[in-house]
TrEMBL record:
Family annotation (InterPro entries): Aminotransferase_I/II_large, AspAT/PAT-like, PyrdxlP-dep_Trfase, PyrdxlP-dep_Trfase_major, PyrdxlP-dep_Trfase_small
Family: Belongs to the class-I pyridoxal-phosphate-dependent aminotransferase family.
Membrane-spanning ranges: none
Needed co-factor(s): pyridoxal 5'-phosphate
UniProt entry keywords in alphabetical sequence: Aminotransferase, Pyridoxal phosphate, Transferase
Full protein name: Aminotransferase class I/classII large domain-containing protein
Classification of source organism: Eukaryota, Fungi, Dikarya, Ascomycota, Pezizomycotina
Compositional bias of kind Polar residues: 1-20
Domain Aminotransferase class I/classII large stretches: 105-460
């Protein structure tokens, strides 16, 4: 080895940190074996039963709920602030939103098996909505044959994965927690995750897409707007990405958060790659969306896939052996919801309401001491990707409460009956062989402002109390583990609504 090579090896080795047993080297000074939070995660068994791979039994969001249940969440959910699950509030009390059905008429057709591609009337309503919102004045228009109705977003992605040919499929992390688990079930293509750069705010950009194409990737999957960072691609960058991928790669866009757009003054404008499709039957652009998020009906399990007719025919066939199709009565009830003018009014009301909740959460986090910077202000979704290293002043090194990383912060919040999602669950398979502290998402948590304002206030109060305890500023009653006095701080109100129940964690997609 040359002298320069020797110097490089020496420099690299001096920058690494050796584990307590001397076996492993890491770029991060902390050793996960010294952290109870990390050992609890590692202790989840995967070999109790020879036929069970328990690593596939739950996503990170479900794991957080399981841990919270050990602290009493399932017993008294009304006393908890569940800011972990990715679900919007489902009530009818959002000003300007249309009332949700409380009962559904069941037609004779609704008693029969439905077509695996969905009923024609709903497929036509989806196509009409996309043409009205995104394709006015364009020669190429979607028809009912460009739409497949599926029983939820997971089912939609599984159908897509089932019909993909031999290919390299690229997806970007951090992203939705179940992508990797779903994609790894299939062997007809190779799924390759690509990490995004923290310096770019974990945004996708054109150069990253160009790199994927250069290494032979022919299918790209991504969420836009993005879970968990809360950002959407700029319209011009989205258009350029579609231009350079045209006839080179199939683009699969998870657009479930398309309605939560705060970048256009809450005027009801939504985001979709459908705007940039040149020919609806030639451009390999597959769009997944549904009633779950922007229509606030997660329990209905009605979603759709929009794309070229050839893809839709294949997806219809795969439904016959994968899921059997979507509930027909709910499809029939959904048709009248998709009238374009009605949807526009709905989106305006949705955006105003959720922007108010976003601004409240960001304001409280800033008051607590998290100074995240402009790039961390979400312009879409209902998520805040909170960088714990931005806390100022920082927690003393000798603090008995560790909140320096997402897992430790999560466990500390359980004492305050508050649930968030540690950032590592949006990274690739972090609980296996790789050192948890080496994850670029390790010092993040995802906070959802999907729940009602009462729950957000409870959760931010819990976060404030944890930070105060970590700084040694807490008083005798600054924790939910004690009985609190009747007086409430005007700056940090604790809302107690006995009739309010948090959403139990049963998954979030879509």
């Amino acid at each position: 080895m040359s002298s320069s090579g020797t110097r490089r090896v020496s420099t690299l080795r001096s920058a690494l940190n050796v584990s307590s047993d001397g076996r492993r080297f890491s770029i991060h000074p902390e050793d996960e074996r010294s952290s109870n939070s990390h050992q609890d995660l590692r202790a989840n068994p995967s070999h109790k039963h020879t036929g069970l791979d328990e690593s596939r039994a739950s996503t990170g969001v479900i794991w957080t709920t399981e841990q919270a249940s050990k602290h009493g969440f399932q017993d008294e959910p009304e006393k908890w602030a569940n800011l972990g699950q990715g679900a919007p509030e489902v009530g009818d009390d959002i000003e300007g939103c249309f009332p949700r059905p409380t009962s559904i008429d069941i037609s004779m057709n609704g008693r029969e098996y439905g077509p695996t591609a969905g009923i024609k009337s709903l497929r036509a309503a989806v196509a009409n909505l996309y043409n009205d919102n995104y394709r006015k004045g364009k020669d190429s228009q979607y028809t009912w044959e460009n739409v497949c109705i599926v029983p939820g977003g997971r089912a939609g992605l599984i159908r897509i994965a089932a019909v993909l040919g031999n290919a390299y499929l690229g997806f970007f992390i951090p992203d939705y927690t179940a992508y990797n688990e779903m994609l790894s079930l299939f062997r007809n293509f190779v799924a390759i995750p690509s990490p995004l750069n923290a310096a770019d705010g974990y945004h996708i950009h054109v150069d990253k897409i160009a790199e994927e194409l250069a290494r032979g990737t022919s299918v790209i999957l991504t969420s836009n707007p993005r879970n968990p960072t809360g950002h959407a691609l700029h319209p011009e960058e989205l258009k350029l990405i579609q231009d350079i991928c045209r006839d080179r790669a199939t683009l699969i866009f998870d657009e479930f958060y398309a309605g939560y757009n705060y970048s256009t003054d809450c005027d009801g404008t939504t985001i979709s790659s459908a705007s940039n499709v040149q020919n609806v039957d030639l451009d390999d652009v597959i769009i997944v969306d549904g009633l779950t998020k922007r229509f606030r009906l997660p329990g209905w399990r009605v979603a759709w896939i929009v794309g070229p007719k050839d893809f839709i025919k294949a997806l219809s066939s795969s439904g016959s052996y994968l899921d059997g199709g979507t509930n027909v009565p709910f499809q029939e009830a959904a048709v009248k919801m998709l009238e374009p003018k009605k949807v526009k009014n709905e989106m305006q009301a949705l955006q105003r309401h959720f922007k108010e909740k976003r601004d409240y959460c960001l304001g409280r986090l800033k008051e607590i001491g998290f100074h995240m910077g402009d790039q961390s202000i979400p312009d879409s979704t209902f998520y805040i990707w909170l960088d714990l290293t931005t806390l100022d002043p920082p927690v003393p090194k000798d603090s008995p409460v560790d909140i320096s990383n997402g897992l430790a912060f999560f466990h500390a919040l359980l004492e305050e009956k508050t649930i968030v999602v540690p950032g590592i669950f949006f990274d690739l398979n972090p609980s296996k062989r790789r050192e948890l502290f080496d994850s670029p998402c390790h010092h993040y948590v995802r906070i959802s402002y999907g729940p009602k304002m009462e729950m957000l206030k409870m959760g931010l109060d819990g976060i404030e109390r944890v930070v105060k305890r970590a700084r040694g500023e807490s008083g005798d009653y600054d924790s939910t583990i004690h009985e609190e006095p009747q007086e409430k701080s005007p700056q940090s109100p604790v809302f107690r609504n006995p009739g309010f129940r948090s959403v139990e964690g049963h998954g979030e997609f879509h």
